[in-house]
Amino acid sequence: MELPQKRKRISHELTNSQPSNREATPSTSTNGQAGGFVEGSILRITMHNFLTYDHSEVFPGPKLNMIVGANGTGKSSIVCAICLGLAGKTAVLGRGDKVGLYVKRGCNKGSVEIELYRASGNLIITREIQVENNQSSWMLNKKHASQKAVEEAVKQLHVQVGNLCQFLPQEKVGEFAKMTNVELLEATEKSVGPPEMYEFHCELKTFRSKERELENVCKEKANFLEKAKQRNERNKLDVERYYMKKRHLDRIQMLEKKKPWVEYETARKELEGVKKEREEMKRKLKSLKEAQEPLLRKIRSVESQLQPIEQQMKEMTASIREASQKCKQKHDQLELRNKEVDDIRQDLSLKQTEEADRQKRIGHTKLMIRDLQRELQNMDSMEDVTPQIEAVNAELKNIQEEKAKLESESLDLRRDKDEANGEFRRLQNRLRSLEDMMKVKEDKLRSRFNDTYKALMWLRNNRDRFEGNVHEPMMLVINVRDTRHAKYIESHIPLNDLRAFVFQRQEDMERFMAEVRDSQKLRVNSVIAPAESCSNRPPSRSLETLKRYGFFSYLRELFDAPEEVMSYLCYQYKVNDVPIGTEKTKSMIEMVIREVQLRMIYTAEEKYTVKKSYYSNNVVSSNSALRPSQFLTTTIDADERRHLEEQMRAAERQVQRIDERMAAIREQQTKLDRRDNELRAKKKKLSELKGKKRQLEQKISTKQDSLRQMEQNEINLQAIEEETNAKIAAVNNKKVAIMEEYLRHMQSKARLNMEKVYLALQSAGLSAEKTKLETDCRDSSSELKRAEVAYTKLDQIKNNLLATCKTLMKRASEICNMIPGETAVPEELHAAFGQLPNTLDEIDAMLNEEKTRAECFTGLSDAVVEEYNRREKEIQNMEKELDDKTNALTTYRQNIAEAKERWLNPLKQLVDQINERFSDFFRSMQCAGEVDLHSENEEEYDKYGIRIRVKFRSNTQLHELTPHHQSGGERSVSTMLYLMALQELNRCPFRVVDEINQGMDPVNERRVFDIVVRSACGVNTSQYFFITPKLLQNLQYAEQMTILCVHNGPHMLPPNKWNEKAFLRRAKRRHVP
């Protein structure tokens, strides 16, 4: 019992990241072997921003760990964390190829931390993943480390996440059966064999490969040695002639080496002569420059006199500019004073114009008063309009009351319309949700049967081409009333019919199939409903008579379908006569088959088919497990849909009635508004007549007041003119003062201009003298220039000769293979050069003679001699190598015999142990299986492999496990049992298997689960991780197991708020009757 170790091993998943309360620090384990953990077992897994997790910690147990949770909750994320956290490659997982893809979407980085048990102190491995550059950083026990150091630490603990026998992720389950026998042997050796077994195997393969290589090498070398000796005998005479030719060529080479030295010596002597001429011209050039120096001194003296004069002229120019600026300022001030005088005169003109305008307005106002007084006298004779105004007011009041009633009714109607529209939208949303459920069903159809989906789209666009009813594929129109019952319908109706179209008329079906199957080449099915409806056909027996056997319904009552579809199913598959039972039915199935005498019945999880022999009248029954529903789990309530459509039509009619009444009200309101406007216009006209007399009296009074005001506002023009003249006189006085300053500045400017003219005359005289001196200097410079040109030419010739000498020296050095920088003829060439001519003509003559003699030896090449010499050396080397290879081959054969004995005997024992456990597991399942070591040739060690052979039915032979011969469920069972056979032999610290039970039938799944529990919870077993999205009911569990439940959702509690005891108390209270 290891309950103390299980209490805290609960995994939590967070939707909002929360920090962990546990500080992961390196520590020495106190519960290692005592707690059941072996060296390298996983104590803790911490994930942060990893795949589906914000933050989560997992504490597995030392034995079997069941990780259970619905699809998509994050079970496989834990598997990915184990692989990547232990330096595994992304290719092992079969998901994304980039490690950055494993960071939670929307985050920049994520991390995985894994704590492994180690007797000398636990090992904590931390991996932080960066999304931006797809890189990872590693830490060992909170200290930065390289990935290679992590891989070495993991390897020392015998962890192999790349070995399918130890680590089998969900995406790689199918690849286990695809492994060749050789690959399976290598994986098994690495997983359960001694550490040296796989090394011995690799060593054997290497020895055998090298043995084959040595055998081939010895044979090839012996043949090549004999052929080389024969070829050298044939080439011996050609080699002797080649050496005679080589002597002539050597003399030619020596002549060619001496020739550049003779050329160099000739060029060197010429260079020495040019250098002497250059030095003489240099001395002449110097004497000419000394004779020209007095003229240059006079030119510099004139320039020194010119410089201060030019400086004074610049200062005069600045002073003149300043005086001009002051004159401009005074001129601008005079212009401002003139403008001021104009403004004063304009003000006087405005006052005169204003007074004239006042006199005109006084005369005009008096004329208007006389006209208004005459009009007032004419108004005294008109009648009273008050009774007419009162009658109009009474009618207006009646119209307002009528309009208020209509407005109140309009508001009520508008409120009713808003309520009706709100109800319509609510119904529309509900209907849309039902249509979305239909869209889910259509997506399933498209993903599984794309041709049928294309035909469905064509049918919806061309329904007008058919006369009778045409129903879409049955899986779309069948609505299961309870999704738990969908498995019965899918097990009873074949898949080909579930995706078939149902037609009412034969000609419609033929037209449809001609289009989609013949023209569009789509693979679709179609059926025709019976001419006489069978949808209401009664069952052969009343349901009341079957309830005592546990039957609760006939198949027809579990779903809804259109009339023609239900008729076809009743006619073809007797859904009206197939009862559905419960576990009670299963418990008394023999009695049910004997007494009920129905051809087909269903229990809770199985389908029974009953047949009666035509010869012996014996009853034969067969049963099969119900497969999970795939297409009918999404249900749509047809009655609710029809009811919603009727309610929507009623709401539309109500809105239409309200709109009609509101239109009538608006028409009445328009008429009332028109009459109201007419009455108001009449009232306005009468009111204007009544108030016109009073208005005239008021206008006369107003005009008289205005006249008195204008007469009082008389302007005194004489006083204003006197004031204006005084202002103009004051401004003129200021203008006089400004003009005096202006004249003073003009005089100063004239004086400065005169002084500048005198300085300009002095500057012109000095410039003329300087020009004359420069002309004399240029005349004396012509001879100097000719001397400079001659000197430059000699210098160029000298440089060219120097470059030529260097080139010739470099060429001579290169030909003689001299050290760079060395200028003397090498000592070894002195004697040879002494025997050769010393002039270029003699050297050329001897060169032609030697070349002619060398050309007489034709048909020879260096390659022949090189090949001869090379072959002589090869013959010697091959004789030595052949002896060495022969000795090495003898040594390798001895090593192979010793390595084979060390490897093969322990391997056979290991395979026998695996076979014994594997066979026991299969016998416990009433099946057969064996494991053996297979090889077609005992000496081909790279062809050795483990062969797995199984049989699941008693009437078949053992067949090798392949990806094609067995079904998916049989491959899963075989893979699982092979892995369990390795469990007790395993030297690896843990094993991971992800969702391998998918595809197993319930019987095999239950058997395999029992084997897993027995094997993984044994005494000498290592840690085991078993991931599954679902478990069968009533399985047998062991106390050593650890159950890790993975939950996911937007309302998950963070780890620091999770209370396991409170959760268990609530669960117990909920189940107490």
Total helical segments: 26
Q: Which structural class is indicated by helix and strand composition?
A: alpha+beta
Indicate the overall shape: flat
Number of strands: 24
Q: List unreliable stretches of 5+ residues.
A: 1-34
Instruction: Give Rg in angstroms.
Output: 59 Å
Strand content: 5-15%
Write out the strand line-up for the largest beta sheet, numbering strands in chain order.
2-1-4-5-6-7
Cα(first) to Cα(last) distance is 30 Å
How much helix is in the residues? 55-70%
Largest sheet: 6 strands, antiparallel
Indicate the mean pLDDT: 78
Structure description:
Residues 264-333, 389-444, 641-723, 861-902 form a coiled coil. With 1073 residues, this protein is an alpha+beta fold. The chain contains 26 helices and 24 strands. It has a six-stranded antiparallel sheet. Strand 17 (606-612) and strand 18 (619-625) form a beta hairpin. Residues 1-34 have low confidence and may be disordered.
Write the layout of secondary structure elements.
Elements (H helix, E strand, L loop, with lengths): L2 H4 L35 E9 L2 E6 L5 E5 L6 H11 L4 H4 L15 E8 L6 E8 L4 E6 L2 E3 L1 H10 L10 E2 L4 H6 L2 H12 L2 H40 L1 H56 L1 H86 L7 H63 L1 H12 L8 E2 L2 H4 L1 E2 L5 H7 L2 H4 L1 E4 L2 H14 L5 E4 L24 E2 L4 E2 L2 H11 L5 E2 L2 H5 L1 H8 L3 E3 L3 E7 L6 E7 L12 H75 L4 H99 L11 H8 L5 H16 L6 H63 L3 E7 L10 E7 L7 E2 L7 H16 L6 E5 L7 H15 L6 E6 L13 E4 L14 H12 L2
Helix pairs in contact: 7-23, 8-20, 8-22, 8-23, 9-19, 9-20, 10-11, 10-19, 23-24, 24-25
Subcellular location: Chromosome, Telomere; Nucleus
Protein name: Structural maintenance of chromosomes protein 5
Subunit structure: Forms a heterodimer with smc6. Component of the SMC5-SMC6 complex which consists at least of smc5, smc6, nsmce2, nsmce1 and nsmce4a.
